[in-house]
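User: Please fill in residues for this 1533-position structure.
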């Protein structure tokens, strides 16, 4: 038994209560206690399992066994009492009483321990003899249930076993009733928690109908139903169906089980059904239904009885297959309770030759569990139910008058007698042993005495221990024979033995019989004859020997041998032999790196351990330990300093120590190479601490001396100090300074020698901070900064710079570059526009970064906005132009201060001043700056330079030119002048080539070129060499500004263009040709191109197409000269040029045109409009609106208009209107836009305000007039207000006289438009006329009345009828919204007298007064009871049907519109609106409502997107209907 562990808390987790069992002097019982740790006595057998549970079995319970027991585990103790009750006197035999006591004793076995208890009982019964009387119960009495045992511990078969006929029940009704029909172990009173649960269920009852118990035959169906009332429940309750105590049937739903739930909306009742299909026998049992809702709980139990058919009760069914647990969910509908307890599938080999039913029928109830466990039967309950039914239908044997006893027992060598009596003496009997027929012999003797048949078995041995049966025809009876062996005694006892370690030991004993079963024990633990064990068990006849090889001290113990008839014990003592040291260890002195060899010899061949300085020595590749016989050796290769020390060898099992000392010596060395310092130079940063550790070696530890020059470093506490350690020399400089730079000498020495080394120490520092950086340029989110290098680089080259940035109001700096910047300029980017920033710089060398420079002056990144968008003409009069536009797409952080509107006249204004020509200084500045930015404008960098960057360059050039000349030149003026210079230079160069045709390109400069033209010539060469177009791009942008997208020219149009330019080229581009002639030629080319393409090309489009074509051709020619220079030298090289680089046929024609003198001139120069120089600011002050009217313009003139956005960063690029605007007012016909809601009758109540807004359009401002019914409107009663775009009719307080048709007329000169609007002012109706009583009968009164004379200018929608008792005259409403003019009032009180009155009702409400009946109606009590006529209910249900269709509607964008229709149907149909067959839902733009079957869809502020087909769909249970209409949305211009 394991030793109990000590804990502060109780060691016993499961405490046993008092147990009561039955006592008898003639029979034995067994009581079982279950704890976790117990003591064992002679009478008590304990069993300890791996689950830490211990079972206590008390055999032979008698009256004296009534004692108090205690269980001790560690520091915990549990006490309980076993009560012995006197067995009740039953009218059964002694064997029956023994069976009853056995059954009562088994009730104490807990449900968790049954399987373990059965396995233990099987082991015990194999070794203990069984008396025949215990196997022969003929009748069984049901014992009283044990009192005081918990629900989990109380288990008996009493509720399954019925008393035999003629066996009366004990007096007093002590036999407990069975609560469950399928329970093998019944619960006496129910678990406490179950009682509490039932108690709670009574408090909160939820069931209104509970399932009732029922029965079904095997294979039949049955349904259990429960109902829960849901009137007070907010949600569905939770219902569980369970079998037994805890098995949830929801997981078993399948082909045998279905769960269903329904809800009745009228009765507010939930119905839950459990339907069992094709019931099986194992479905029988107790079921439970639980319903839970929040804190409420209710439960009810019911039973299911499965009635077996004749086939199901047949004994041919294999019990082991019938009651095994279900497999891996092959049928999810099986209600197998035990299937939930399965952990793994266990395959049990079936033995069909053994009839387990026969064993169970002839066995005691206490043995049922053992038999089930032995044959793999797990469904005990089902097995017992089947066995109970089999016993119930058991018939009396016809062949045997007396059968064999259930079991017989005989000693080995004895004689046994089997006897049966037959009813027919002539019947032939056959005897069988284990299924084999027995033949007569000397061992088996058969005798016949009348009807008695006897079988004698002589000299019984173990082979006769078997099952026997006798057969008479088809009937048989069986029994079992147990052969008991005599006990084996020990004839020769074990003897105490003493020996030495390593010897062989034999312990011998003799027994009374040869080959007997003998067990050996060592200190109470059994020894087994295992293959690798040091213990061997040998049997030689009656001698039994225990052999121990190589005995050691662990074999000191008490050894015992046990037989069935006795035991013997002896002591074994193992001692050590005396040890002698033959060769001791010697002290050694070894040089570093040599081998250490320690060797000793002892008298005994035992192992041992080596120790160094008290620690064990472990073997390794360098350290080797040898043991051969009595010699022990320790070898250490390549001795180290660490190997020095005291070594000791200690033999195992002895306290002897053999010591030795090892001493290691080594001359001093300086290991400078290990530090990896180049040239023995150590670099240290100034201000830091230098800790120079130089590895040294030597044994004993050498002494270290440091010196600098001739001065020894002896200080130990100053700033510079030297320290010495056994493995290194240390030089420390706490705060390094520049003066510490120099050569240092280190000297090491010991008794074996000395060594020295020289070390150079260099002190370096970080550089000084750079000067304050300067921000030279600022953009939208960038800036350009530069700085100077620091004055002192710290003794190391400057590797680069780090730049940091922060917001001015912040204190957190942000690093901008993680890679060092090598230059002294940097461009920070990604800054927030409009926020003030500061920047600073760090210098970095190999030591580190310097301190930061002073922050730069604060700067703010700002950028102009993008140009305004969507510039259009809003209105034109004879002297004004109104423009409107949209704000810029990108405004930026600088915001938007306003707009500047500029305009200029087409062809120039009268008396315009011409700007003076460029001066020499202006031209010089222009050429100088263009030359400076040549690569970006027309060189190799032109392709990489963005348009914005080029514009910025031209703006810089403009500022410099204007700063010199002061003539306020525009960018267009400067570009135009530059192109004139290029053209002038090219003409001179062309003249020079004609004069000197053989001159090469280097000497082509004409002598008459001015210095300025020579500089222009260099730019022309740069453009020609790098093969990129010149200034055409910039001028194209200038001309194309504000132009819309141009449709690409077709191949035919381009051919016509090139053909005509080739034809008219010399004259078209000649400076001698007048402008009017050039315009005429371009007009002819335009007509020819439009005749071919039909695209209505403008002259500007044609010129732009020619420039693009010329530019593309020149770019290809330049590329060919660069990549394929052989083209000009060899015409055949054209074939080797790739196809994509070759000129097309069209481009070849353009190339030929460009070869003509003057054809390659920049003709675009004269196309720059001159009026661009005379832009006039229309608004002296900025306007913040996006609409502006330019006034004071001459009628008939044409102007260009552009708008610029202005902010703190300046003016944006202008947005130019693409076409000139003619100053002449345009007449627009009048058009009235009547809102949709005014196209129908406009209804208002009396007293409400009328506000009608009708938009219209027309130019000039239209004249508006209103009339009512063809007459002028009284302006004192009705207010009318007109504007340029709409007219408003307003009535502050409407009256019924304001109803009628109102005509609106809008006139523009001789044009007009009219519209008519109907206004209806409604009021409450008058009372009905002449309400009178038509008839009175029974409890009913018939009334009639006439409609009111005044309907309130609206349709009468219904009537309200009220009644009043004459006694009280209190009025009560009996009918509301009643549509007819006659009504019958019912359910009046007999004996009372009533007056009635009626109110009229329209859309404004009820009439102010009501009409009352003149006479009263008295309800008389008649002698004969009134029998109302039998009316058949009228079916008012009908499918949906639209009574008013949807109408196609035209709506005005921005004004609400509605779609209306009416529908009828019963039940009330569900209305769904769809747009283009898509359901409209959760859209705030649409509002759907229905009032008295009128369905309305309101569309709020529709746009063109809302146009489409709208569908109204009505659906109820009888059908559906739908209507379509189209909605058109017109957008006002």
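Assistant: Residues filled in for all 1533 positions:
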């Amino acid at each position: 038994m394991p030793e109990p562990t000590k804990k502060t808390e109780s060691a016993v987790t499961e405490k046993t209560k008092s147990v009561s069992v039955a006592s008898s002097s003639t029979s034995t019982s067994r009581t079982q206690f279950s704890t976790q740790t117990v003591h064992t006595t002679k009478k008590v057998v304990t069993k300890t399992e791996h689950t830490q549970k211990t079972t206590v079995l008390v055999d032979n319970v008698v009256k004296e066994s009534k004692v108090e027991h205690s269980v001790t585990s560690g520091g915990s103790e549990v006490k309980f009492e076993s009560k012995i009750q006197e067995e009740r006197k039953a009218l059964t035999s002694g064997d029956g009483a023994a069976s009853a006591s056995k059954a009562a004793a088994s009730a104490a076995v807990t449900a968790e321990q049954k399987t373990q208890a059965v396995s233990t009982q099987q082991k015990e019964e194999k070794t203990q003899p069984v008396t025949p009387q215990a196997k022969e119960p003929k009748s069984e009495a049901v014992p009283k249930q044990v009192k005081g045992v918990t629900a989990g511990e109380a288990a008996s078969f009493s509720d399954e076993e019925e008393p035999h006929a003629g066996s009366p029940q004990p007096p007093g009704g002590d036999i407990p009733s069975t609560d469950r029909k399928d329970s093998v172990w019944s619960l006496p009173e129910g678990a406490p928690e179950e009682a509490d649960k039932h108690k709670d269920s009574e408090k909160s009852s939820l069931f209104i109908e509970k399932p009732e118990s029922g029965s079904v035959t095997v294979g039949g169906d049955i349904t259990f139903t429960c109902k829960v009332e849901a009137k007070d429940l907010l949600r569905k309750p939770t219902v569980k169906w369970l079998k037994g105590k805890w098995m949830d049937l929801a997981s078993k739903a399948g082909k045998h089980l279905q769960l269903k739930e329904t809800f009745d909306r009228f009765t507010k009742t939930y119905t839950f059904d459990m339907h069992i299909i094709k019931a099986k026998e194992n479905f029988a049992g107790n079921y439970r239904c639980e319903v839970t809702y929040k804190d409420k709980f209710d439960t009810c139990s019911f039973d299911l009885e499965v009635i077996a058919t004749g086939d199901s009760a047949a004994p041919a069914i294999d019990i082991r297959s019938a009651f095994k647990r279900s497999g891996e969910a092959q049928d999810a509908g099986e209600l197998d309770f035990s299937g939930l307890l399965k952990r793994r599938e266990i395959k049990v080999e079936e033995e069909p030759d053994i009839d387990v039913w026969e064993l169970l029928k002839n066995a005691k109830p206490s043995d049922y569990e053992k038999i089930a466990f032995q044959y793999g039967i797990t469904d005990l309950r089902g097995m017992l139910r089947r066995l109970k039914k089999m016993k119930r239908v058991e018939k009396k044997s016809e062949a045997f008058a007396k059968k064999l006893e259930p079991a017989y027992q005989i000693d080995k060598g004895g004689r046994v007698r089997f006897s049966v009596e037959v009813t027919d003496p002539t019947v032939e009997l056959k005897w069988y042993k284990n299924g084999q027929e027995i033949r007569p012999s000397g061992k088996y003797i058969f005798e016949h005495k009348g009807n008695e048949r006897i079988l004698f078995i002589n000299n019984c041995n173990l082979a006769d221990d078997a099952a026997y049966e006798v057969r008479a025809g088809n009937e048989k009876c069986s029994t079992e024979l147990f052969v008991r062996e005599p006990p084996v005694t020990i004839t020769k006892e074990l003897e105490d033995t003493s020996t030495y370690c390593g010897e062989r030991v034999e312990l011998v004993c003799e027994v009374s019989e040869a080959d007997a079963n003998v067990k050996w024990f060592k200190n109470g633990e059994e020894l087994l004859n295992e293959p690798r064990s040091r213990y061997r068990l040998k049997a030689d006849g009656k001698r039994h020997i225990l052999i121990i090889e190589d005995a050691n001290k662990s074999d000191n113990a008490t050894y015992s041998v046990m037989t069935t008839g006795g035991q013997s014990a002896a002591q074994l003592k193992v001692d050590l032999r005396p040890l002698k040291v033959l060769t001791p260890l010697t002290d050694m002195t070894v040089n570093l790196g040599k081998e250490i060899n320690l060797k000793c010899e002892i008298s005994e061949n035992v192992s041992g351990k080596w120790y160094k300085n008290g620690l064990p020595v472990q073997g390794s590749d360098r350290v080797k330990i040898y043991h051969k016989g009595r010699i022990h050796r320790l070898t250490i290769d390549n001795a180290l300093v660490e190997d020095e020390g005291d070594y000791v060898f200690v033999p195992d099992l002895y306290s002897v120590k053999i010591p030795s000392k090892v001493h290691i010596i080594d001359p001093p060395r300086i290991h400078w190479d290990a530090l990896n310092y180049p040239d023995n130079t150590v670099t240290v940063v100034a201000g830091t601490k230098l800790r120079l550790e130089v590895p040294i070696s030597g044994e004993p530890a050498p002494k270290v001396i440091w010196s600098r020059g001739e001065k020894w470093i002896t200080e130990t506490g100053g700033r510079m100090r030297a320290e010495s350690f056994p493995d290194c020399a240390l030089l420390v400089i706490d705060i390094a300074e520049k003066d510490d730079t120099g050569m240092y000498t280190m000297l090491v020495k010991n008794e074996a020698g000395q060594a020295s080394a020289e070390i150079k120490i260099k002190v370096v520092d970080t550089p000084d901070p750079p000067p304050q950086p300067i921000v030279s340029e600022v953009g939208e989110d960038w800036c350009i900064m530069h700085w100077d290098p620091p004055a002192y680089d710290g003794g190391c080259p400057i590797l680069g710079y780090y730049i940091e940035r922060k917001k001015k109001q912040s204190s957190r700096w942000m690093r901008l570059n993680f890679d060092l910047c090598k230059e002294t300029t940097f461009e920070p980017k990604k800054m927030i526009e409009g926020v003030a920033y500061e920047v600073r710089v760090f210098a970095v060398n190999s030591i580190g970064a310097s301190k930061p420079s002073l922050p730069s002056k604060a700067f703010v990144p700002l950028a102009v906005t993008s140009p305004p968008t969507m510039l259009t003409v809003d209105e034109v009069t004879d002297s004004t132009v109104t423009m409107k536009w949209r704000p810029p797409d990108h405004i930026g952080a600088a915001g938007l201060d306003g707009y500047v509107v500029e305009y200029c006249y087409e062809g120039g204004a009268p008396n315009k001043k011409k700007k003076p020509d460029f001066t020499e200084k202006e031209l010089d500045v222009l050429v100088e700056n263009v030359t400076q930015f040549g690569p970006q404008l027309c060189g190799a960098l032109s392709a990489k330079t963005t348009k914005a960057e080029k514009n910025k360059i031209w703006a810089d050039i403009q500022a410099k030119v204007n700063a010199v000349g002061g003539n306020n030149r525009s960018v267009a003026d400067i570009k135009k002048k530059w192109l004139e210079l290029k053209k002038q230079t090219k003409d001179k160069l062309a003249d020079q080539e004609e004069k000197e045709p053989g001159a090469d390109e280097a000497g082509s400069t004409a002598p008459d070129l001015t210095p300025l033209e020579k500089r222009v010539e260099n730019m022309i060469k740069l453009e020609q060499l790098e093969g990129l177009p010149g200034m055409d791009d910039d001028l194209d942008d200038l001309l194309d500004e504000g132009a819309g997208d141009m449709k690409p020219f077709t191949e035919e149009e381009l051919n016509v263009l090139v053909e005509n330019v080739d034809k008219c080229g010399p004259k078209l581009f000649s400076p001698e040709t007048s402008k009017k002639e050039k315009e005429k030629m371009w007009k002819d080319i335009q007509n020819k191109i439009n005749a071919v393409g039909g695209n209505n090309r403008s002259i500007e489009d044609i010129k732009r197409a020619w420039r693009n074509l010329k530019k593309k051709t020149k770019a290809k020619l330049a590329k060919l000269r660069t990549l394929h220079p052989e083209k000009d030298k060899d015409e055949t090289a054209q074939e080797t040029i790739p196809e994509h680089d070759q000129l097309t046929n069209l481009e070849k024609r353009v190339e030929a045109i460009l070869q003509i003198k003057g054809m390659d001139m920049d003709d675009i120069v004269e196309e720059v409009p001159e009026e661009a120089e005379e832009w006039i600011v229309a608004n002296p002050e900025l306007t913040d609106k996006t609409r502006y009217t330019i006034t004071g313009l001459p009628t008939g003139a044409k102007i260009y208009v552009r708008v610029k956005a202005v902010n703190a960063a300046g003016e944006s690029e202008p947005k130019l209107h693409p076409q000139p605007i003619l100053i002449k007012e345009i007449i627009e016909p009048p058009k009235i836009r009547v809102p949709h809601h005014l196209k129908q009758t406009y209804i208002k109540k009396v007293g409400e305000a009328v506000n009608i807004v009708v938009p219209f359009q027309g130019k000039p401002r239209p004249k508006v007039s209103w009339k009512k019914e063809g007459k002028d409107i009284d302006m004192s009663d009705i207010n009318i207000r007109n504007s340029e775009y709409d007219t408003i009719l307003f009535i502050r307080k409407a009256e019924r006289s304001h109803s009628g048709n109102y005509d609106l007329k809008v006139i523009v000169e001789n044009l007009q438009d009219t519209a008519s609007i109907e206004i209806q002012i409604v009021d409450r109706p008058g009372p009905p006329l002449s309400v009178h009583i038509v008839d009175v009968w029974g409890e009913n009164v018939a009334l009639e009345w006439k409609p009111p004379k005044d309907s309130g200018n609206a349709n009468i929608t219904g009537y309200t009828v009220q009644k009043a008792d004459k006694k009280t005259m209190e009025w009560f409403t009996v009918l509301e919204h009643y549509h007819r003019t006659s009504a019958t009032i019912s359910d009046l009180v007999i004996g009372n007298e009533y007056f009635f009155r009626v109110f009229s009702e329209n859309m404004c409400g009820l009439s102010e007064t009501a009409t009352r009946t003149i006479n009263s109606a008295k309800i008389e009590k008649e002698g004969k009871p009134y029998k109302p006529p039998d009316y058949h209910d009228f079916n008012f249900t009908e499918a949906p049907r639209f009574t008013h269709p949807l109408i196609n509607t035209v709506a005005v964008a921005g004004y609400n519109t509605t779609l209306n229709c009416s529908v009828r149907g019963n039940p009330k149909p569900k209305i769904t609106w769809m747009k283009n067959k898509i359901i409209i839902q959760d859209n705030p733009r649409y509002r759907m409502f229905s009032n008295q079957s009128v369905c309305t869809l309101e569309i709020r502020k529709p746009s063109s997107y809302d146009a489409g087909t709208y569908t109204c769909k009505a659906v109820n249970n009888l059908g559906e209907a739908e209507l379509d209409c189209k909605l058109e949305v017109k957008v006002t211009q």
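For context: DSSP finds 18 helices and 92 strands in the chain.
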